[in-house]
Amino acid sequence: MPARLKPTAPIAPAAILVGDPGRALLLAQELLEQPKMSNHARGLWGYGGRTPEGEELTIQATGIGGPSAALVLADLAELGVERAVRVGTCVAFGPAARPGELLAVETALAAGGSAACFGVGAGETAAPDPALHRRLVGALADGAREATVASLDTMPADPQLAAGAAAADMQTLAVLATARKLDLAAAAVLIVTATEQGARAEEELVEEAARKAGRAAAQALSNPQVKG
Fold first, then answer.
1. By CB neighbour count within 10 A (0-12 exposed, 13-18 middle, 19+ buried), where does 218 fall?
2. Burial class of 95 by CB neighbour count within 10 A (0 to 12, 13 to 18, 19+)
């Protein structure tokens, strides 16, 4: 039995990872026909069930920060997860960013903090699984743009370390780097919930974007032949 998750239901080979337990519940209700709670240990709510297309899917909260996400993903791998998509949130840089916008992460940039724990030094990057990323981008259609995202532990971001990034979050690099170490396929799509200039997305807009991202993630995960 893994050290952190204590599942009470089977874990599917495909998983959607979210930081917020409330968003895990939101996506479980949106994506699964008869969602059942599969984990509540440590407040990390997880759900399992079948999509309307008949695909088994796990939706699991990962908590706050990269280390928490990495530990949860390691537990999920031990329980049989083979591929995962992070549906998270981020703070966007630059005046072109729009609250509620979706970003498909093509590169996660280590902007200091705990990134070194995952074998990625400051200024280095981790990439999603190419096939899974392509499927995710295709499922999002024109509803998202591909972007480099800086991963760090606290805001504001160091301008030098985050140079070239469209946004910053806390977990994507940890998920991608840990997946690579565990030989899993992983990708990520992030919701812009705020901008560096102070604009914030309304909760209804964030929930709408989360549903859209979750549906795309489920579609991308539906084909088991995604790695590589």
1. buried
2. exposed
Tens digits of residue pLDDT in 179-208: 999 999 999 999 999 988 888 899 999 999
Q: 71: buried, middle or exposed (CB in 10 Å: 19+, 13-18, 0-12)?
A: buried
Alpha-carbon distance of 7 to 63, in angstroms, equals 16
pLDDT 10s digits, 98-156: 889 999 999 999 988 888 788 888 888 999 999 999 999 999 998 899 999 999 988 77
Please return the burial class of 84, using the count of CB atoms within 10 Å of its CB with bins 0-12, 13-18 and 19+: buried
At residue 18, the 3 state secondary structure works out as strand
pTM for the model:
0.94
